[in-house]
């Protein structure tokens, strides 16, 4: 009798402990929106003090490293000493130190604790990815950004328990010479257990299984992302990706494969185009014959006019579309709005492979006007005043601190983080649009090194975008659009000239494209460019029309180098060192037009 009671007690206690563990886990993972906002408000009320504390923490953790010891800080952690002793650097300056870490040198080179993971930048700008240290502190700041952004977003666009159709892809991870794990920054985040835990707490778990996200072939992963979204179409509340380009690319692909997706759903059998065994197995657990759903999707797609409003038609409970939509992503907004219909476009937060900068706390602002409030505890920030000099930004412009920036002024960001980057020039130009308590709200302007320049001319990525938009207006009446574009400065010609590459959605007449070419040339209104064109110090602009699918080949090339689709950005200016991209573009030119605008 006693044994039975004792046994029952053990069994009951075991069950009780399991229940309590589940309760504790639920409490731990429950997302407290108001608490997150309150913590953010407290952080930003005294940005100056938080910045000093953050720098002190960084230097206390890493002051004994080889890199910092050479600058004679001698244990001092105040901002003035730090600025006086430690130089402002670029990635080229730190590359030898990072390479030694990647090669297996375990001594404290840049950080006090050993670096175990390397992030790769996208590599779309310079033609090859950069190595950047990645550690637990960077992961923590990533989750802080995600939570803060979601809290403000969810206050304006509340969602319930549902799923997110996330077009996210992992790149191939590999081991460096020294045995460190290396992958794109997005891959390092997606593979971290904190990411999935945070997404679940924020009620936005991904529709797709891990096998799809981490699949070796992004074409197959994309097909299955779309299929998973359709299977869970009534549960999808958010459609997102890292960059707007990935969302547009996904739905351009949908236009081509939607009938195959309908067949898969109707029959409950995955298309033979998906060949990766792990993906097929994972999808077989989700995919069951559903003729009713297949009929619904078929009817909705058949009734759409030119695919306008595709996303809300497919996913009726979607609240918004989310991703980075600024900078080089702005040219995709027109197409994204076409797919989105009346849905809101919400721009994601501001960061880079090197680390995070700011969070979007005003989600109702359209992407073209979005600003980012700097989180003062994720790094130490400095700002080099531009003063109208984009081409060079000499050190004569002394950097100012987070609380010293002025409204309406433009600056290049310099930051120091917990992963071994000290006074690092991020290469981004931002404008101060306002302040949230004691921290500035930044608007991204352009990359400082993406300049079209031959003589005294200086045209930025934004100038290029505006010129393309102006020239492309004449295509609208013919229901044509510029699918994608890039540029190149041809200095081998005499005189040097701008070359603009366009991929179009269809065929245009020679007369129309010649007009577009002339309009492009006239739309670069920089005084140095105009005056140089008038005296033929800069040659006539060339518009080169490339074959359909050329920019897809560029994407495939990028992925083939180990990049992740999630991290892909079409390079808006292809430099001479990026010979592989120039080769892809040049070998796919269908027609060339030479401007007669200044004849």
Automatic annotation (TrEMBL):
Claim: Ligase is one of the keywords in the record: yes
InterPro entries (UniProt xref): GH3 (IPR004993), GH3_C (IPR055378), GH3_M (IPR055377)
Residues annotated as domain GH3 C-terminal: 462-575
Coiled-coil residue spans: none
Pfam family membership, one: GH3_M
Record keywords, A-Z: Ligase
The protein's name: Jasmonic acid-amido synthetase JAR1 isoform X1
Organism (species): Nicotiana tabacum (Common tobacco)
Gene coding for it: LOC107761031
């Amino acid at each position: 009798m006693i044994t039975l009671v004792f046994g029952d007690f053990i069994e009951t206690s075991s069950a009780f402990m399991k229940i309590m563990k589940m309760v504790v886990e639920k409490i731990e993972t429950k997302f407290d929106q108001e608490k997150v906002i309150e913590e953010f408000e407290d952080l930003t009320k005294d940005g100056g003090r938080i910045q000093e504390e953050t720098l002190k923490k960084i230097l206390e953790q890493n002051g004994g490293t080889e890199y910092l010891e050479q600058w004679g800080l001698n244990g001092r952690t105040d901002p003035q000493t730090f600025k006086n002793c430690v130089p402002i650097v670029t990635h080229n300056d730190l590359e030898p130190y990072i390479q030694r870490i990647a090669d297996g040198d375990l001594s404290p080179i840049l950080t006090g604790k050993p670096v175990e993971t390397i992030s790769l930048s996208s590599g779309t700008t310079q033609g090859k990815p950069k190595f950047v240290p990645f550690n637990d502190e960077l992961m923590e700041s990533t989750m802080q950004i995600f939570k803060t952004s979601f809290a403000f977003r969810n206050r304006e666009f509340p969602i319930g328990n549902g799923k997110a159709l996330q077009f996210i892809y992992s790149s191939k991870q590999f081991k460096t010479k020294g045995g460190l794990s290396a992958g794109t920054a997005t891959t390092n985040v997606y593979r971290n257990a904190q990411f999935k835990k945070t997404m679940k707490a924020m009620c936005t778990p991904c529709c797709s299984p891990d096998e799809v996200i981490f699949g070796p072939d992004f074409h197959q992963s994309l097909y299955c992302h779309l299929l998973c979204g359709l299977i869970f179409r009534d549960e999808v509340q958010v459609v997102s990706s890292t960059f707007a380009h990935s969302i547009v690319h996904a739905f351009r692909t949908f236009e081509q494969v939607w009938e195959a997706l309908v067949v898969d759903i109707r029959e409950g059998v995955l298309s033979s185009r998906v060949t990766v065994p792990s993906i097929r197995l994972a999808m077989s657990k989700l995919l069951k014959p559903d003729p009713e759903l297949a009929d619904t999707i078929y009817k909705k797609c058949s009734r759409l006019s030119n695919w306008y409003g595709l996303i809300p038609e497919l996913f009726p409970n979607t609240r918004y579309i989310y991703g980075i939509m600024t900078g080089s992503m702005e040219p995709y907004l027109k197409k994204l709005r076409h797919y989105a219909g009346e849905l809101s476009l919400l721009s994601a937060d501001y960061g880079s492979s090197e680390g995070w900068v700011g969070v979007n706390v005003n989600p109702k602002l359209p992407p073209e006007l979005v600003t980012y409030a700097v989180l003062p505890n994720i790094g130490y920030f400095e700002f080099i005043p531009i003063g109208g000099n984009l081409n060079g930004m000499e050190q004569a412009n002394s950097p100012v601190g987070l609380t010293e920036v002025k409204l309406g002024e433009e600056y290049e960001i310099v930051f120091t983080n917990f992963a071994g980057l000290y006074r690092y020039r991020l290469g981004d130009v931002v404008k101060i649009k306002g302040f949230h308590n004691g921290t500035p709200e930044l608007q991204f302007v352009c990359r400082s090194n993406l300049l079209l320049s031959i003589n005294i001319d200086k045209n930025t990525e934004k100038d290029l975008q505006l010129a393309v938009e102006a020239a492309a207006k004449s295509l609208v009446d013919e229901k044509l659009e510029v699918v994608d574009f890039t540029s190149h400065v041809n200095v081998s010609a005499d005189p040097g000239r701008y070359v603009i590459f366009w991929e179009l959605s269809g065929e245009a007449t020679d007369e129309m494209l010649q007009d577009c070419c002339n309009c492009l040339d006239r739309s670069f209104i920089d005084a140095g460019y105009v005056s140089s064109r008038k005296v033929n110090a800069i040659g006539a602009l060339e518009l080169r029309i490339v074959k359909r699918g050329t920019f897809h080949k560029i994407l495939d090339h990028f992925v083939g180098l180990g990049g992740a689709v999630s991290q892909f950005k079409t390079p808006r200016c292809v430099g001479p060192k990026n010979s592989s991209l120039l080769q892809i573009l040049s070998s796919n030119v269908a027609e060339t037009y030479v401007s007669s605008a200044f004849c």
